C-alpha cells in the first residue's frame, strides 16, 4: 500500500482546495494518471499519481481544503492487487517515493526543499504542516470522465503478467512539468534529467518537445454559491446564497487589505496627449504589420526608462521584528501587469523587464497573459513583481484610484485613449488623450520623485521618437 501525500505545488503554499476527484475507489490507475484536480491560491492543477495500482482510499471529498503533506490518495500496488511488487520494477530511483521518513532518498529531498531549491518531492509535501479539513461546498462535476482515464483491468493484468508494468513515477517531482510532458505526448521514462541525481526539470521536457508549447490548461470553473436559508439581521432581506472566500479570491483579499492597512499611499495623475505615440505605432504597423508591438509594450518600455531615472519607486519598504525599517533596492525590474481572468484579477510579472526591447516585452506580455487566463502561470510568475502597470482603459474608464500590489511600492494606471479637445500651439484641436495615475507608497519617496516619474512617462508618450532613440 502506498499513500500519496499532497505535494507542495509551488512557492510554499500550505493548502489546496480539492475541486474534484478524477478517479474513484476501486479504479485501476497508471503512473502519471491525473487523480484529482486541486485549486491553490495561485492556479488550478491536475495532480498525477506517482504510483500505479488499485485506488484503495480517497482521502477527502470534493470541496474540502487539504493541507500540504497530508494524505491525498492511497494505492494498492503489491501482488495483492494482481501487480508485481514495486521493488521489482521501479526505475530511475523512483522507489524512493513513499510515506515520509521511510528512506534516505526521501530525507535527501526534504533537505533539498529546506535549502530553498523550490523542488518538492511528490508524496512528501512540506513538513510540519498542520490544519483542519473543512467542508466548504458541494462536489463539482469532474471535467474529465475518470472511467475513460482508467486502463482496463484485463489489460493491466496482462501487462503485469508480462512484468513490464511501471508502478512508480520517474524522477520528475513537479505536477506542472508532468502535465507539460503528458499534454505533449512525451514519456518521462525516456528522458534523462539535468537536475541533481537525474531529476527531470521543466527545461528537459521543453527541450524534448523541441520548443513546442504546452497546451493551455482549461479555464477554472467559476466559484459556486452554496444555497442557504435565513434572514440577514442587518438588512432584513432573505439570504439566497453563501459563497466561501477561498483560493485566489482569498489571497487577493488578503493582499488588498494588507496594502490599504499598511501602506500610506498617495496619488498623482496627469492628462497625456497620446496622438504622436498612436501615429508612430500606426506607421510601424503599415511597414511591418506582423511584427509591431502593442501599445502596452511601448508603455512598459517608457515605464522602465522612468524607473531607471527614479529607482525609488522600484524599492520595497520592510519592517524588521525589532521595529526597525529599511528600503530594499533591486538589481533590475520585475514588471507586473494586471490581467483580467475568469478567476479574477492576476498580476503576472516579466522578470528583468529592463533588459527587453519593446518587441520582446510584447511577446512576454502576450505569453504571460495567456498563461494567467488558462491557469498555467506559475506561482513565481504571479508573485515576483517589483512594480505594476495597470491598463484599466480596456474597461472603458478614464481613471482609477488603484490599490498598490502589496508589498510593492507603486502602481501606474492607464485610462482609455479617446478623442478630446486639446490646445496645440495655441490652437484648439482634437487629440487622442489618456490619463495616467500613479499611486505610490509615501514612505519610499516624496511627491517630487513621484511627480518627476509620472511627468517623464507622460513626456515619453507625447514625444515617443526621442525617448525610444535612447532605449
UniProtKB/TrEMBL annotation:
Q: Which domain of life is it from?
A: Bacteria
Keywords of the record, alphabetical order, are: Acyltransferase, Lipoyl, Transferase
Q: Which cofactor does it need?
A: (R)-lipoate
Q: Where is the Peripheral subunit-binding (PSBD) domain?
A: 172-209
Which residue numbers delimit the Lipoyl-binding domain?
A: 1-76
EC number, as in UniProt: 2.3.1.-
Give, as one word, the top-level EC class: transferase
The cross-references to InterPro entries, in alphabetical order and at most eight, read: 2-oxoacid_DH_actylTfrase, 2-oxoacid_DH_E2_comp, Biotin_lipoyl, CAT-like_dom_sf, E3-bd_dom_sf, PSBD, Single_hybrid_motif
Put simply, this protein is called Dihydrolipoamide acetyltransferase component of pyruvate dehydrogenase complex
What PROSITE patterns does the annotation carry?
BIOTINYL_LIPOYL (PS50968), PSBD (PS51826)
Region entry Disordered: which residue ranges? Answer: 118-139, 217-236
- Low complexity compositional bias, start-end: 217-228
Similarity comment: Belongs to the 2-oxoacid dehydrogenase family.
Amino acid at each position: 500500500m502506498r499513500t500519496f501525500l499532497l505535494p507542495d505545488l509551488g512557492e510554499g503554499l500550505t493548502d489546496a482546495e480539492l475541486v474534484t476527484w478524477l478517479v474513484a475507489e476501486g479504479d485501476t490507475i497508471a503512473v502519471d494518471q491525473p487523480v484529482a484536480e486541486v485549486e491553490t491560491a495561485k492556479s488550478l492543477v491536475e495532480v498525477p499519481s506517482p504510483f500505479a495500482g488499485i485506488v484503495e482510499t480517497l482521502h477527502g471529498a470534493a470541496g474540502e481544503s487539504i493541507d500540504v503533506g497530508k494524505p491525498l490518495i492511497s494505492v494498492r500496488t503489491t501482488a495483492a492487487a494482481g501487480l508485481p511488487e514495486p521493488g521489482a520494477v521501479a526505475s530511475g530511483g523512483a522507489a524512493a517515493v513513499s510515506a515520509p521518513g521511510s528512506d534516505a532518498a526521501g530525507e535527501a529531498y526534504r533537505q533539498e526543499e529546506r535549502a530553498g531549491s523550490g523542488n518538492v518531492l511528490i508524496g512528501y509535501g512540506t513538513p510540519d504542516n498542520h490544519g483542519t479539513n473543512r467542508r466548504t461546498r458541494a462536489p463539482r462535476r469532474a471535467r474529465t470522465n475518470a472511467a475513460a482515464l482508467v486502463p482496463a483491468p484485463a489489460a493491466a493484468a496482462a501487462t503485469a503478467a508480462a512484468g513490464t508494468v511501471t508502478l512508480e513515477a520517474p524522477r520528475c517531482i513537479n505536477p506542472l512539468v508532468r502535465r507539460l510532458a503528458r499534454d505533449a505526448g512525451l514519456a518521462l521514462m525516456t528522458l534523462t534529467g539535468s537536475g541533481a541525481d537525474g531529476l527531470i526539470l521543466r527545461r528537459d521536457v521543453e527541450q524534448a518537445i523541441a520548443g513546442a508549447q504546452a497546451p493551455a490548461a482549461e479555464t477554472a470553473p467559476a466559484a459556486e454559491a452554496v444555497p442557504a436559508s435565513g434572514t440577514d439581521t442587518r438588512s432584513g432581506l432573505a439570504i439566497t446564497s453563501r459563497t466561501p472566500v477561498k483560493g485566489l479570491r482569498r489571497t487577493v483579499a488578503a493582499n488588498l487589505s494588507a496594502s490599504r492597512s499598511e501602506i500610506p499611499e498617495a496619488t498623482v495623475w496627469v492628462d497625456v496627449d497620446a496622438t504622436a505615440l498612436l501615429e508612430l505605432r500606426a506607421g510601424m504597423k503599415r511597414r511591418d504589420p506582423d511584427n509591431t508591438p502593442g501599445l502596452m509594450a511601448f508603455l512598459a518600455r517608457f515605464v522602465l526608462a522612468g524607473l531607471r531615472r527614479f529607482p525609488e519607486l522600484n524599492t520595497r519598504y520592510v519592517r524588521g521584528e525589532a521595529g526597525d525599517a529599511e528600503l530594499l533596492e533591486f538589481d533590475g525590474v520585475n514588471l507586473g501587469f494586471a490581467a483580467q481572468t475568469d478567476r479574477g484579477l492576476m498580476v503576472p510579472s516579466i522578470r528583468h523587464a529592463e533588459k527587453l526591447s519593446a518587441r520582446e516585452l510584447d511577446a512576454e506580455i502576450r505569453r504571460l497573459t495567456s498563461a494567467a487566463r488558462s491557469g498555467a502561470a506559475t506561482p513565481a510568475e504571479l508573485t515576483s513583481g517589483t512594480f505594476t502597470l495597470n491598463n484599466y482603459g480596456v474597461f472603458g474608464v478614464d481613471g482609477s484610484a488603484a490599490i498598490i500590489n502589496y508589498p510593492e511600492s507603486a502602481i501606474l494606471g492607464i485610462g482609455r485613449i479617446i478623442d478630446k479637445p486639446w490646445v496645440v500651439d495655441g490652437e484648439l484641436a482634437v487629440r487622442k488623450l489618456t490619463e495616467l495615475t500613479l499611486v505610490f507608497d509615501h514612505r519610499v519617496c516624496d511627491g517630487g520623485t513621484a511627480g518627476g516619474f509620472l511627468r517623464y512617462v507622460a513626456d515619453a508618450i507625447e514625444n515617443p521618437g526621442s525617448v525610444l532613440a535612447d532605449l
